Amino acid sequence: QVQLVESGGGLVQPGGSLRLSCAASGSTFNIVAMGWYRQAPGKQRELVAAITNGNNTNYPATVKGRFTISRDNAKNTVYLQMNSLKPEDTAVYYCMSDSGDYGFNWGQGTQVTVSS
Question: How many CB atoms lie within 10 A of CB 115?
Answer without folding.
Answer: 10
